[in-house]
Amino acid sequence: MQSQVFLRHTPGCGTGVNRQVRHVGRASAFGNTFTRLILQSSQCGCSVSTLEASNKARRVSGRRAAARNAARAASASQKLTVAVTGATGLVGTRLVQRLAREGHNVRVLTRDVGNAKDKLRSRNTQFYGPRSWSEAVSGASGVINLAGEPISTRWTNTVKREIKRSRIETTRALVAAINACPKNRRPKVLVSTSAVGFYGTSETQTFSEASAAGNDYLAEVCREWEAQASKADVDRVVILRTGIVLAKEGGAVGKMLPVFKLFAGGPLGTGQQWCSWIHRDDLVSLYMEALTNSAFRGSYNATAPNPVRMAELCSVLGSRLGRPSWLPVPSFAISALLGAGASVVLEGQKVLPKKTLENGFEFQYSKLDPAISNILAGS
Ligand SMILES: NC(=O)c1ccc[n+]([C@@H]2O[C@H](COP(=O)([O-])OP(=O)(O)OC[C@H]3O[C@@H](n4cnc5c(N)ncnc54)[C@H](OP(=O)(O)O)[C@@H]3O)[C@@H](O)[C@H]2O)c1
Fold first, then answer.
1. What percent of the chain has pLDDT over 70?
2. CATH code that applies to domain 77-376
3. I need a labelling partner for 272 at 20 to 30 A (CA). Which of 38, 139, 185, 322 fits?
4. Dihedral angle at the C-alpha atoms of 320, 323, 325, 326, nearest 10 degrees?
5. Which of 93, 110, 242 to mutate to test the pocket of ligand 1 (most atoms within 8 A of CB)?
6. Contact 357, 306 (CB under 8 A)
7. Most informative mutation of 117, 146, 228, 301 for ligand 1 (most atoms within 8 A of CB)
């Protein structure tokens, strides 16, 4: 295994070496070099660290962040009853597992009860078809709205209509069911999904929650989707503007993996487009936080604090998959796979989770490399 050893001399430490010394090689081959560095640092009092050590520290701090988020959510939410639409999808399945694991009751609102029962075999879970959504939300503590036709697909006119209709009409029906509940049976909070597509696309701008909406097709879908959600007459409506979700089994990156395996790890398109990503586990934690933390109200970006240009995402993916990273993946290959839905990865936006961080949310995966390593390892 490759290992790196750093010796950092503090300016003015007396050694006269005011620079960082870096050695790269096999851990087992460091031998004398490592001993010399340790001795040198013990003389001047400066620090020696190995990359393994700092990676370990990062892993520990990631686990601590997850534990803190979970503990905060658990203490704030003793035994909730949570109604969830889109629970059978990439994000929803994980969210339902998490809710059930923490002892909450889950009400799955689905178009197809049989399919949902096959996909979600969790304890504490009840299933409701479209005709019983009113019953499903009545008496629930909170509602999470994830439903929508997938967008990382070929966009025929019919699909485009369905992408919009599925989000706006599902949210309208859900909000109508919530608002029809008598006050004493009405959920207190609605956490509803939106996407970073809200801001439109740009290679140069940086967007935070305060930025204005864009005016392309996806921005229009997101604006109307959010507008429907905000009509819920509840204590809190929280909107999560979600970035590209990193998961092995699906989403844009999950779908790109076979292409990377076939071709190479080079940039997609120009590679200069921004990719605002989030690890699926962090997204699930953020839904839990938004549900249980009353400081969350209004719109939040559900993206890791370190968005990257697509070239970097591809290079990390390529290197983790052992593919060369100099050969570009042709846009036509991605367009053939995703159709117009490829715009999600061929055009992008740099989005920062400013309000999300200000509210104290701690990301377990704030850097891309460990997030990709984790999803490729099968999480
Ligand atoms: N994955 C990402 O990278 C990403 C990025 C930004 C935003 N988002 C948004 O986050 C939400 C969850 O994402 P996801 O990746 O988990 O989505 P997903 O895997 O595509 O699942 C969405 C769920 O929505 C329901 N659904 C699908 N087509 C529908 C239709 N035509 N009408 C009504 N309901 C429909 C389905 O549930 P039932 O069959 O049980 O009804 C499905 O399981 C989605 O709204 C998505 O747009 C995702």
1. 75
2. 3.40.50.720
3. 322
4. 170
5. 242
6. no
7. 146
